[in-house]
Design a protein that fits this description.
Elements (H helix, E strand, L loop, with lengths): L8 E6 L6 H13 L5 E6 L7 H6 L4 E3 L6 H15 L3 E4 L5 H11 L2 E6 L3 H4 L5 H10 L3 E3 L2 H9 L7 E3 L22 E6 L8 H9 L3 H4 L2 E6 L5 H10 L6 E5 L4 H6 L3 E4 L8 H8 L4 E4 L4 H4 L6 E4 L4 H13 L1 H18 L5 H12 L2
Parallel strand pairs: 1-2, 1-4, 2-3, 4-5, 5-6, 6-7, 8-9, 8-11, 9-10, 11-12, 12-13
């Protein structure tokens, strides 16, 4: 039975409040729950980051619980705050905060919701892999943002009755189509968005663009929005591929909606994804997607209908798909329009209150 959101006390534990996809989904949830009368608090292991101000502007307290770098001391602080706040539910915003949530909820005697936002193999990898796997197997409710991640969790021994499919959503008012002006130079504007880190494979993007026939490559301009540890390496690779006049590394951006309005299609070349916000934002903005068939991407992009997909290691296939959309304006418009319809119908923020009511009803059983 769905929980009554009015008066329900929910605390979220966030590992960061930076500009990542999990943090954007947290903001969507808070924005959806606030008008329902839910009593909300955010506990954060970091402070002074991008979303902290907007969350406070909603009238929601943000409490820093990351003073210590030691996990046990952080856990003790989280438990102390829960004892003071007395929420009914503690919800994890990141995979790496699941361990804190699993332990703190038991110590504080409340219900919990964990998070899986990508492939479960990634979720339980890293320095604290055994603890992360323990938390997944002991969390009594887990929100999973893609069917692929749900199946992966089951393969790792998580009980299906503890998993709840909570798809990512997108603000279809903020991200909406515009009449795209014809570039008098005949240029097609490609957009790629993400952290410049290994798993996003922007090195692959550069090779795919460089593999296009010269006449096609001369018609495009690529904006890479994002920053990260590989930026200098990627800029050097771009130079080596002869793409100096084709690819612009624009760095981190705050007005994402404007970026999509200025683009003709989205290109995503990751090795690993959960349910990417950038794909939903592009679809809501009326852009077709050329991407890799990884994680939950194929759940969002209907191949041949709203975009074109290829296997991550199929760079030839990605180049062929990209060329097809660059060369055919009508195809771009048709796929972009269908993507917009799909985003509004299946992934609008309007679906969140009902979905969260069902999730919390499951958690409170």
């Amino acid at each position: 039975m769905p929980a009554n959101l009015a008066g329900l006390r929910v605390a979220f534990l966030a590992g960061t409040l930076g500009q990542g996809g999990a943090e954007r989904q947290l903001m969507h949830m808070l924005t959806a729950l606030r008008p329902q009368g839910t009593e909300l608090t955010v506990l954060s292991l970091t402070r002074g980051e991008y979303w902290e101000g907007p969350i406070r502007e909603l009238g929601i307290p943000v409490i820093w619980v990351g003073e210590s770098a030691l996990p046990l001391l952080r856990l003790r602080r989280v438990i102390a705050e829960l004892g003071r706040l007395r929420p009914q539910i503690l919800q994890s915003c990141h995979c790496f905060t699941n361990v804190y949530v699993a332990a703190a909820s038991r110590a504080a005697g409340l219900r919990e919701v964990g998070a899986i936002r990508s492939d479960t193999r990634q979720t339980v990898s890293g320095r604290f892999a055994p603890l992360r796997l323990w938390s997944l197997r002991h969390l009594r409710s887990i929100a999973v943002n893609s069917r692929a991640a749900l199946e992966s969790a089951i393969a790792f021994g998580v009980r299906p009755n503890r998993l709840f499919h909570l798809p990512n959503v997108v603000d279809t008012h903020q991200f909406s189509p515009v009449d795209r002006a014809v570039d008098h130079a005949g240029l097609i504007r490609l957009l790629a968005v993400g952290r410049l880190s290994a798993e996003k494979r922007f090195d692959r993007l550069l090779r795919v663009v460089a593999a296009l026939p010269p006449a096609v490559r001369g018609r495009i301009r690529v904006t890479v929005a994002g920053d990260g540890p590989l930026r200098a390496v990627l800029e050097q690779q771009s130079e080596g591929c002869g793409l100096r006049s084709t690819v612009c590394f624009a760095g981190a951006q705050t007005d994402m909606a404007a970026l999509y309005r200025g683009a003709d299609l989205l290109l995503l070349t990751s090795d690993s994804e959960g349910s990417p916000n950038v794909v939903l934002e592009a679809m809501a903005s009326g852009l077709p997607v050329v991407g890799t068939r990884t994680g939950g991407v194929a759940e969002l992009v209907d191949h041949g209908v709203t975009g074109l997909l290829a296997s991550p290691d199929d760079e030839v296939g990605l180049a062929v798909a990209l060329e097809a959309l660059v060369q055919d304006e009508g195809l771009r418009r048709r796929m972009g329009g269908r993507g917009r319809d799909r985003a509004v119908r299946q992934y609008s923020c309007a679906s969140l209150p009902r979905a969260l009511g069902n999730l919390y009803g499951m958690a409170l059983k």
